[in-house]
Every structure is written in C-alpha cells, then in structure tokens.
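Incident review: delayed structure delivery

Summary: a single-chain prediction request sat in the queue longer than the usual turnaround. Root cause was a stuck worker, restarted by the on-call engineer. No data loss occurred. The affected request and its eventual output are reproduced below so the record is complete for anyone auditing the incident later.

Affected input:
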Amino acid sequence: MADDLDAVLTQLVVQSPADLQRLVGLIRTTCGDTLSLTPLPAQTPVSAPESDAEKVVAEFAEQFSVDVSAISDRQREALTGALGAASFAAVIQMFFADFLPRVRNGLEVLGLPVGWVPEAPMWDPGIDAGDMLFNQLLPGVARLRSLDPVTTEVVRLRGAVAHNCRLCKSLRESKALDAGGSESMYDDIEHFESSELLSDAHKAALRYADALIWSPARISPAVASGVREHFSQEQARELTLDVMRNASNKIAVSLKADQARVADGTERYLIDEDGQTVFA
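Output delivered after worker restart:
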C-alpha cells in the first residue's frame, strides 16, 4: 500500500524550517496533547510556551485542534500581531501537527501500515511546507480513485459542516452528482443514522469521519469494524486520507478566508486527473 503519498507524508514530518523551528516544536506538542495523541516528533521539542507570542500561538493551535470554527477575531488578530507575515506558515504547520497524528491513529486502529513517521528523523530545513501541502499532498490524495465519488462527496460534506467552511458547504462535485448524489441525500448527512437514502457503507464512512474529526484518540472498535466491513484496505486508507484532505479547509476557516464563491445556492466543480479542483 506504500506509494508516493507515504514519501510526501514523511517529508512533512521531517520538514523543519529554521525560522519556525521552535514554533513547530511548540505547535506539535500543543496539538498532540490537545488531541490526546502522540505528537509528531520535532527537531526542537517545546513542552510549553515561554513568551507572550508563544502563548498566542499555543492558544490558537489548541483551538485549531478542538474546533476551528470557534476561533475568534481576537485570536486571529493576536496571531497576526505576534507573527506578522509568518502567520500563514504557522497555520500550515498547525494543520500538519493537528491532522497527521489523527491519520496515523486512524490507520493504526484499522490495522493499516504507517511507515511515514521515522523513528530517527533526518530533519530537513529546505522543504517548502506550503508547496508540499498544496502541490503534492492535497492533489495526490485527490487523485486516489478506489472510493466511489458519492462516498467521497458525502464524507467531504460532513467535514465541511464540522469545520463550518462556507466555501466547502457551497460546492457540489459533478461526478458525485452524476453517480447518484442529490440534495435530498446530502440533506440527510446531518442525521445520517436514520437516513434511508444513505447506504450502510456511507454511514460507516461517516461514523469514521466523525471519529477522526471529533474523537481521534477514541475511535471505537465498532467504528473500525464498520469501515473494515464495507471497504477494502485500499479504500479505507483513501477514506482516512480524504478526511485529512477535506480538513485542510481548517487553514482557511481559521484565518476567516473561507468565503463562498457564490452568494446563493451551490456551485459545481470536479477534480481533474491531476487532482486539481476545476470549477464549472
């Protein structure tokens, strides 16, 4: 099951920008502790903030992990006031620190291999984390095709609501609509357990997505069993990575940059063969 995405994930673990090295250590500790998961390793481990600026970053990172939609204007202003132009880079680091431990634990609970967190990392200060995220990781996950498009879209929309991403909630993927997705079905996502339109496989995927989003350290055996029952190992891995890809909306939401492209209704889009979003 190893592929180029494992190599990308490894690079994201070992990237250690010199100008943010201490903050990366603080962010990784904060997010891991907040989630009750093992933090990503860091070249400069930091157990607690030691300055007012670091306290601001730690508070923002904690809220980023707990519920990104609840980040306040005060917290945003404090972050940009403390970090200035480095704020966006710091938030990207929060996404890695927040979601890679979730993915690692989800895969382990499902009995799937995790070979991308090295025991003795060779730290690399030259990796461009933003480029890796937007040009390699996210498109790479989007190119995966073992899941059917409706399941992929149902899970994406669940994450859109969980993180209250205005842009994500306004979008509808064309291939999913063509494959049987509908607004009636999507309306049922909110109360999926009682839905007659969503399949048992959809419900198993949504339970797992909810667990990764809200209680990643406590993924129940029943939830894991449901995933294994309805999905192959390849599909289960893709499902896990899809939840992570969808959660990249936390970066925009945290910075209040998630404005929808349409004032009313929804907008169709599709993922092309390169994993890039193409709007209708």
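Verification: The chain has a mean pLDDT of 97.
Action items: add queue-age alerting; document worker restart procedure.
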